[in-house]
Amino acid sequence: MFDSSPIETWEGAAAIFNSAGSTGVWIWLLIACALCIIPVISAIRHENETERKHG
Amino acid sequence: MSPEEVRAVVDAAANASMEAYYWWATGIMVCIHAGFMMYEMGQSRVRNVLASGVKNILAFAFIIPTFFLFGWWLYWAYGTGNIFLPDAGAEYAQYYVPWSDGMGPNLQDQASGVFWAAFVLFSATTASIVSGSVIERIRISSWIILAVLVGSVVWIIAAGWGWSAGGWLVTDWGYHDVGAAGVVHMISGFFALGVLCNLGPRVGRFNADGSANDLLGHSVPMTIAGLMIIIIGFFGFLGACLIYPAPMAASAADAGWLTIYGGPATLSSFAFNTLMSFGGGIIGAYFITKDPFWMMSGALAGIFCAAAGLDLWYPGTAFALGFLGGVVIPYSHKLITSWGIDDAVGAVSVHGTCGLIGVLAVGVLLGGYPSHAEGVPAISFTGQLVGAIAMGLGGFIPGYVVSWILKKCGILRSSDKVQEIGVDAEVPVPAYPEAMQSRDYS
Description:
The complex is a heterodimer.
Chain A: H1 24-54
Chain B: H1 3-43, H2 49-77, H3 91-95, H4 112-133, H5 140-162, H6 168-173, H7 181-199, H8 220-239, H9 267-289, H10 292-307, H11 315-338, H12 347-365, H13 381-408, H14 416-421
């Protein structure tokens, strides 16, 4: 569906990961960062709720 | 030294390194089995704990000789483009009949024994995956039959189809599944689903109105530690999915690590993406559940969601796919439970669902990568979809049909009475000191 190959032939290929050398890499980096930050916020909320319940 | 002598020394050293690599990868893969055993015993109630362990040990033991007798041969007999019937005339199928010179100590063949051993452990893994879902009510004799079926027949035929350079899924459709998301995890997950349809739930799992009760295992810490040990084992598993560099390659393209399809790869790409998807899976499951059982299951789910494209993912993509796996598994398990299916450890969800995600993710996100061999299609969504259907049906149908036959023979399931006493009634020793026992062993 998403044509993300950075190569057309394997001869002399170097970076072969999806979206290598394009803005796609930055999009995946941003997604990965967001997926690290959101669970930490969720953890803080969960702990606050536990504190309220039992603290 | 003459050039011929130099070449002989290099060849000998490289062959010994290759043997050592697969030897140790096989040893590490035993951790998958050890981990699954702990995981299943932890998820069992006290009265069933040893039967779960015995079941797991026997699956491993029976797969070794049956894979020697016919499993390894099936791989080579299905790797030449055929779908239904094995090709007994294929060169390697003839070489790997169990009475061949290649199937035993042979000073001219250093590869066959260690490759066979690695595949035995892949096979044991497929049986271990199914094993957890059926605990606390399957009869051990039936389990042995089903374990041999999935481990030494079903998955290895699927591997011939889609995990070898000559398989029809590869040559006709460009199917790409380097880390076995489809051929191991989908096959096992859907095989388990087929068996569970006939096996039925554990006594007390569902109420008359269809609502489910949680039958908590006796040791969550044992389960979690077991899952972490499985992860160690998967480093051996995934490492053994690559072909070790040939000593004197014919061309530069063949000089490094190769995927199971013969395309160029690096062990580094597997390292990046295995770890990133592992981390993503744990974080995703923590985000959704905060439950350590699902977090460690999420680690496995994450790896399986990235497994099919471990050679090609950007690590950020592998992390996101792993996160998706960790998020999806509790919901997928809930959905399967709502159908009245009692999967005691969530294996259908972790392996079946995430294997499916892994296979399709390659089609969605990695389209257009050229093939390594002439005439073989590039990676495409259609090719991955055909592969996913083949793996789903290839796992489900044999699991359903053979477990239905065992059910009709009356040997599939322990009686309700035995389940109430505990299936450890079949085991002659108690699991724990008398203060912790749930029945009288005198």
